[in-house]
Amino acid sequence: MEQAMNNIPIIIKRRLQAEVVGPLFKEMVDQLGQHKAERILESAIQKAAIDEGRRFAKQVASSNQSPLRRFIDLFEQWTTGGALEVDTLLESDERFEFNVTRCRYAEMYQEMGLGHIGQLLSCSRDGTFCEGFDDRITLKREQTIMDGAPCCTFRYACEIEPDTES
User: Fold this and answer.
1) CATH value at residue 25
2) Which end is more exposed in the chain, N or C (fewer Cβ atoms within 10 Å of the end residue's Cβ)?
3) What is the phi/psi pair of residue 10, to 5°?
4) What totals of helices (H) and strands (E) does the chain contain, helices first?
5) Under 8 Å between Cβ of 63 and 39
6) Residue 12's closest CA among 62, 78, 91?
7) Distances 99 to 74, 117, 120, 142, 150 between C-alpha atoms, Å
């Protein structure tokens, strides 16, 4: 079953999740208020992203590559089918920097009437995914399309400890 799930493009997974989460979120807002509903959703999504990061890390655990290289190899799964249009600025064992110039995730959430929580459903996953995948990888992002910027600025860095064996 897990192998079958791995073959589904991530944007399709996010659509299916949003179809369930959207009505749940609306009900939480009705019963708990906007702020509390957003905090609950954000917490749940981030915990799920950490778990997802752990699962992805297991898939590439046997690789001798740096943690960030393993992450870069997986990254294409988020872009499958044109889900993201990306301008890569820097790619190395310690840094992966790119701008997303088109985000079909944002477009999809808008079409579903969920643009107001797209940041929680998608963008809030990005940094916390790294916590589960390899906590040496960090993300700095100053803007997102989901928040109305012309592009998303992804700046991943990885602290690689020098080999101390002699």
Assistant:
1) 3.30.1380
2) C
3) -60, -35
4) 7, 4
5) no
6) 78
7) 17, 21, 19, 11, 10
Q: Using one digit for the tens of pLDDT, what is the confidence trace for 9-63?
A: 999 999 999 999 999 999 999 999 999 999 999 999 999 999 999 999 998 877 7
Q: Report if residue 56 sits inside a domain.
A: yes
Q: What angle do CA 116, 117, 123 make, to 5 degrees?
A: 120
Asked if residue 166 is part of any domain, the answer here is no
Q: Whole domain around residue 151: which residue ranges?
A: 2-158
CA–CA distance, 108 with 147 (Å, rounded to integer):
14
Instruction: Pick the closest to residue 157 from 128, 135, 142 (CA basis).
Output: 135
- Residue 163 placed within a domain: no
